[in-house]
Specification:
This is MYND-type domain-containing protein. With about 575 residues, this protein is mainly alpha-helical. The chain has 17 helices and 14 strands. α15 packs antiparallel against α16.
């Protein structure tokens, strides 16, 4: 398994949500520099770099005398495209010190710009490296040079750990030798911090037997591939490894659906973590873009801007363990310190005759006897049997074993097993419970795409937990809404689809922009829902005019017309249960 990476994302992402069919959200978990998380816990090493991070459109480093725009196929500038709906204050670009593709992406993507294409050309020297064309090979030569020399001898491409650390070492050594004065050295690599400015946690890593075992293995492979002459001292390599391991990020594809590599972004890793982030980062090639989730976020203020390093669909205890084990800090962000977080591990009252109360097991709950720990339901005022509580706890603790069991089963048996397990725990765990959501997370990828009703039901069952775990404008929420809207359309329920597609569109438009493929996809779903409603109204003799334009227009004027149509129809559908769902979210 890949170790934790800073969520892509985010957010990530990103890590970073696996509730999508065909892995709509990338596992996006990123490796970020340690640090105290949350407001007023900014690391000392990030002080004084506010206003130093590059803003979209800012002139690159003075050392670079050439046009430094990142080019795909040697032609397209990779900067984020701004439109009338986008505000440059809501996004910032960052460039890597070094980056590398995952092993399974090496044969399908350019080793320089990371574009996926069927027409890759091999390096004429090593016959292993793949590039869009000669221009990409030229631009990528500063990274591929050392690899190319080694591949002529070894003939086998090493794994990403060796390749990424090798590129970091090669670049660090070039800086030591003064080769960074070359005009193209900082082309698409500009950053305000040096690699020695970021956290390393050498003492902690060196005291961790598992981490040292991992480094020794990587270092042995590094020497075997590159040779000792290409290396710096072992101590320097270890320090670079620590800085890379703590601070690197996952790189996603431009669609925000798949993790394709890892990169060390010296300025992006200056931002602290929060389990309730107000920003995410996305990738376009090797360029990472930090994006705000609300209008009030100042991305240049490191003390108030935070994104998530981990998967947010976890309890506070689980999240703190992940952060402590990888980044060596205990999170005390707003979400982690919220008493409402205990809802993620709550249980259902076994005695309530209807609308069963959700009972929290952790924290100072008034319904729990401080001495006996017996829980009394505040709704039906009956005591909860201890054996019932133990059964619920056992079910939550068994999730990891359930995952292992499913990995050893056939697809059909895994579906049956997970379905039966979900049905059983649904009688004791509420839908907001994160462990209930994780069972659905395991089940969704196994369901055939043609079973729209079943997939719709699963997404609806997990919606409450998703909405609780992520900020409103997070793309994970928007993508989840999009899936529900899509399945509603397939089930011929356009009115319900319209509501979810509208919410998804607003989130993705703000976060990604109107030109992103995912936003345009939701726009098309929204158009389909409007057309289906229009046809339905005509078929029953309804003379109400639904002004839906053909196609999937993206201009502001057409969207304004579409919005009025959506509002008019939504007013008729005010009773839609999903939109009126009351969810407790600690503001």
């Amino acid at each position: 398994m890949r170790e934790e990476e800073r969520e892509f994302g985010p957010d990530r992402f990103v890590g970073i949500l696996k509730l999508e069919v065909a892995s709509i959200l990338m596992a996006k978990k990123k490796k970020k520099q340690h640090r105290r998380a949350g407001t007023n816990h900014q690391s000392q090493q990030s002080i004084d770099i506010t206003n130093q991070i590059e803003v979209v459109g800012q002139v690159r480093a003075e050392e670079n005398n050439e046009n430094s725009g990142t080019r795909i196929d040697g032609e397209i500038n990779l900067c984020v495209k701004e439109s009338e709906h986008d505000n440059h204050l809501h996004r910032m670009n960052f460039y890597p010190f070094a980056y590398a593709l995952h092993d399974d992406q090496l044969s399908s993507r350019c080793w320089y710009c990371l574009a996926k294409t069927d027409k890759l050309k091999r390096c004429r020297a090593c016959y292993k490296g793949l590039f869009c064309n000669e221009n990409c090979q030229t631009l990528g030569w500063k990274d591929h040079r050392s690899e190319c020399k080694a591949l002529k001898i070894v003939k086998i491409v090493p794994n990403i750990e060796v390749r990424l650390l090798g590129r970091i070492v090669a670049r660090y050594k070039a800086i030591k030798l003064g080769k960074d004065k070359n005009s193209d050295f900082y082309t698409d690599r500009v950053s305000k911090r040096s690699i020695l400015d970021i956290w390393s946690h050498i003492d902690r890593v060196s005291q961790d037997p598992a981490s040292m075992k991992k480094f020794n293995e990587i270092y042995g492979n590094l020497l075997a591939f590159y040779g000792s002459k290409a290396m710096v001292s072992r101590n320097e390599v270890f320090e670079l490894h620590c800085r890379n391991y703590i601070n690197r990020h996952a790189i996603s594809d431009s669609e925000y659906t798949e993790e394709i590599g890892k990169g060390l972004y010296l300025d992006l890793c200056a931002y602290d973590h929060s389990c309730r982030p107000n920003a995410i980062y996305t990738c376009n090639g090797f360029v990472a873009t930090l994006r705000s989730l609300t209008d009030g976020v100042n991305l240049q203020d490191l003390s108030t801007t935070h994104y998530s390093y981990i998967d947010l669909v976890n309890t506070t205890q689980e999240r703190r363990i992940m952060l402590r084990d990888t980044w060596y800090f205990e999170c005390h962000c707003e979400r982690c310190d919220s008493p409402n977080e205990s809802l993620l591990s709550s249980i259902l009252c076994p005695n309530c005759p209807e609308e069963r109360e959700r009972l929290c097991l952790h924290g100072n709950m008034p319904c729990k006897d401080k001495i006996s720990q017996i829980i009394t339901c505040p709704k039906c005022h009956m005591k909860v049997p201890p054996e019932y509580v133990l059964e619920a706890i056992a079910a939550m603790r068994s999730i990891s074993r359930v995952t292992e069991c499913c990995n050893e089963m056939s697809k059909e048996k895994a579906i049956q097993f997970l379905t039966n397990f979900k049905n059983r725990i649904s009688t004791i765990l509420p839908r907001i419970n994160v462990f209930f959501c994780k069972i659905i997370q395991l089940l969704i990828p196994l369901i055939d795409a043609s079973e729209s009703q079943k997939l719709l039901d699963l997404h609806l069952e997990s919606e409450e937990c998703v909405r609780f775990c992520f900020p409103y404008n997070h793309p994970a929420v928007g993508i989840h809404y999009r899936s529900i809207g899509s399945f509603y359309l397939r089930c011929n329920q356009p009115h319900q689809a319209l509501n979810y597609c509208k919410m998804a569109y607003e989130i993705l438009k703000f976060t990604f922009g109107v030109d992103h493929s995912m936003t345009m996809e939701v726009d098309a779903l929204l158009e389909n829902a409007l057309n289906m409603i229009k046809q339905s109204n005509k078929s029953v003799g309804d003379e109400k005019e639904v002004s839906a334009t053909s196609g999937a227009p993206s201009s502001s004027s057409v969207h304004a017309t579409k919005e009025s149509e959506v509002i008019a129809i939504a007013e008729e559908e005010e009773s839609t249960s999903s939109c009126n769902m009351n969810i407790i979210i600690d503001a």
